């Protein structure tokens, strides 16, 4: 049974449409196992602003103080994850929320504590924590948080979390949902691109801004066993499919 990992944004209402759930249902009918990784940056920023805590971004990463980390945990695990889980359950899907503390599922280490605070990069995924849920026919809904070997929580990137989970589970496909239908070149949305073509588009400055780290994560996933990565704004559309070679596998 092939596994499909889907990374959705934290604003569930933007992603979780009727067609979204119909696609999940269709995949399940074909025997696929589904894993959802969610973001939450919008709500974290909103909560920090409400509490008059400054939001600082360095090198595309949210500087995470001890106070900001607590807010990140509270928002991701206490607000966003339950909202998404509830929406799935209302559509008749069996789901369960997971995070870094679920059987030491997402292990990480500090990127640069002095500069970024409690921001981490993932060092290891415990697949058993996810597999045990899949074997019970649940869809795991996973929050992007990591934990060090000493038990310190870390703020980790949601796209990177989805990619690392897809790698570890040998996923057949990874969908990275974003706010655009795919990767654009000369006014056209590209149907497929290979890893080599991504490098060329980066060099030509066709790919810029927030799409860069998304594609870097996608390439890592492809180089570590994921068959194909989709960059799209809705899972019922294939978007831009990134593959290791120039043709779909």
From TrEMBL:
Pathway involvement of the protein, from the record: Amino-acid biosynthesis; L-arginine biosynthesis; N(2)-acetyl-L-ornithine from L-glutamate: step 2/4
Keyword Ubl conjugation carried by entry: no
Reactions listed under catalytic activity: N-acetyl-L-glutamate + ATP = N-acetyl-L-glutamyl 5-phosphate + ADP
Statement: the UniProt record of this protein carries the keyword Isomerase: no
Positions that bind substrate: 40-41, 62, 155
EC identifiers of the protein: 2.7.2.8
Signal sequence, renumbered to the chain: none
Compartment(s): Cytoplasm
Gene Ontology molecular-function annotations: acetylglutamate kinase activity
Keywords of the record: Amino-acid biosynthesis, Arginine biosynthesis, ATP-binding, Cytoplasm, Kinase, Nucleotide-binding, Transferase
Residue ranges of domain Aspartate/glutamate/uridylate kinase in the record: 3-233
Broadest EC class assigned to this enzyme: transferase
Pfam families: AA_kinase
Main localization, broad class: cytoplasm
Described function: Catalyzes the ATP-dependent phosphorylation of N-acetyl-L-glutamate.
Cited HAMAP family: ArgB (MF_00082)
NCBIfam families: argB (TIGR00761)
Similarity section: Belongs to the acetylglutamate kinase family. ArgB subfamily.
Name of the protein this chain belongs to: Acetylglutamate kinase
């Amino acid at each position: 049974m092939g596994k499909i990992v889907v990374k959705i944004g934290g604003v569930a209402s933007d992603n979780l449409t009727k067609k979204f759930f119909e696609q999940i249902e269709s995949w399940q009918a074909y025997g696929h196992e589904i894993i959802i990784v969610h973001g939450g940056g919008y709500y974290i920023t909103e909560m920090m602003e409400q509490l008059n805590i400054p939001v600082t971004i360095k090198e595309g990463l949210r500087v995470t103080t001890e106070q900001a980390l607590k807010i990140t945990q509270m928002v991701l695990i206490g607000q966003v994850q339950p909202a998404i889980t509830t929406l799935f359950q209302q559509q008749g899907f069996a789901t369960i929320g997971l995070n870094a503390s679920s059987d030491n599922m997402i292990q990480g280490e500090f990127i640069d504590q002095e500069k970024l605070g409690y921001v981490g990069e993932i060092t290891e995924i415990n697949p058993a924590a996810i597999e045990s849920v899949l074997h019970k026919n649940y869809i795991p809904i996973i929050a992007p948080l990591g934990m060090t070997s000493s038990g310190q929580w870390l703020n980790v990137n949601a796209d990177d979390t989805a990619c690392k989970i897809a790698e570890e589970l040998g996923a057949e496909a990874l969908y990275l949902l974003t706010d655009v239908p795919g990767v654009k070149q000369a006014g056209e949305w590209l149907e497929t691109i290979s890893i080599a073509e991504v490098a060329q588009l980066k060099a030509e400055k066709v790919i810029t801004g927030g799409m860069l780290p998304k594609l870097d994560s996608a390439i890592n996933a492809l180089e570590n066993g994921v068959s194909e990565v989709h960059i799209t704004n809705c899972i019922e559309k294939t978007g831009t499919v990134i593959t290791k070679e120039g043709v779909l596998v």
